[in-house]
């Protein structure tokens, strides 16, 4: 089973904030950290220090998708943000990235296991594929 985490964050979001959200969302879902396969986000975030540090701390691969790739998941999102769309060209980063990565890795359909969890600076979602 593939468990893929999608993450979105504001510029300059610290690894501590991302890790706290990651751990809280997994705890709430009853999911163990070692079950996570990989992390994903928007390609504009590929130089974001907090995301890069999180992947390093968790020892997980971090994959990036373009806004065009993420936009194709719009109809499957639990929440669509006009603000995020205005800035990125897709309606939700965390959920879209999680779905995109799970489907990419499994070569099959994915579903959201944990819908968008949000803090002031970051978002988290978890998708599952067999």
Automatic annotation (TrEMBL):
Transmembrane parts of this sequence: none
PANTHER family listed in its UniProt record:
COBALT-PRECORRIN-5A HYDROLASE
Please report the stretch or stretches of sequence annotated as the CobE/GbiG C-terminal domain. Answer: 3-127
Its source organism is: Pseudomonas yamanorum
Signal peptide range: none
What are the top taxonomic ranks of the organism? Bacteria, Pseudomonadati, Pseudomonadota, Gammaproteobacteria, Pseudomonadales
Q: Which domain of life is it from?
A: Bacteria
Protein name per the record: Cobalamin biosynthesis protein
